[in-house]
Amino acid sequence: MPCSRTAEPELRVGVLALQGDFEAHSRMLRRLGAEPAEVRTPADLEGLDSLVIPGGESTTIEKGIESSGLGPALQAHHEAGRPILGTCAGMIVCDSEHLGFLDASARRNAFGRQLQSFEADLEVEGAGEEPLRAVFIRAPWIERCGDRVEVLAAYDGHPVAVREGTVLASAFHPELTDDPRFHAIFMAMTTSARERAKEEAAR
């Protein structure tokens, strides 16, 4: 069954393209009607409505952010209220011990190494009644989260999808299935943020 378009075509969503399967995220965003743009330098963040930080290896992503000088631009993006989606290693990069976009701490490789990768059906708040198939690859989980962090899904008692303000994060890889619902949550956040920005600019 074809997926309904949940985003206006002019929404521009950046995908951090330093490492990881950023192309799969771009395909999913394009499917939802967004215009994806690969981000490798601070200039690439200009004019974006939101940003995806994909999975991969968190230390490698952090080093790439540092070497490319992206840190201040990412902070400015966040402070401007533009949404951010972090998946797997991207969730780690967003936590309080790294970029600080989430008042939460993620534990690396919490479910085990590559051989312990698995799939599971999750009930995800905001994704409808049908379970969402989640792919976990060397996945983290959230060990600590602040009062303002909303847990959207848990597995085996551990938070694996959270949201705080304009930041959405998952321990799993929503880009590796045909189910667009997790990205659709992010696109709804992106649309709302852009509308708020327009209203503030009009005041």
Taking the alpha carbons of the first and last residues, their distance comes to 42 Å
For the CA atoms, what is the radius of gyration?
16 Å
Q: Averaged pLDDT, please?
A: 92
Shape type: globular
Instruction: Please give the share of residues in helix.
Output: 25-40%
The SSE order reads EHEEHHEHEEEEEEEH
Subunit arrangement of the protein: single chain
The neighbouring-strand order within the major sheet is 2-1-3-4-11-10-9
Total number of strands: 11
Q: Mind explaining what this structure looks like?
A:
The chain is of the alpha/beta class and 203 residues long. 28% of the residues lie in helices and 27% in strands. It contains 5 helices and 11 strands; from the N terminus they run βαββααβαβββββββα. It has helices at residues 22-31, 58-67, 71-79, 89-94, 181-202; strands at 12-16, 35-39, 50-53, 84-87, 104-107, 118-122, 132-136, 141-145, 150-155, 158-164, 167-170. The strands form 3 sheets. The protein has a 7-stranded mixed sheet with strand order 2-1-3-4-11-10-9. Strands 5-8 form a two-stranded antiparallel sheet. The model has no long low-confidence stretch (mean pLDDT 92).
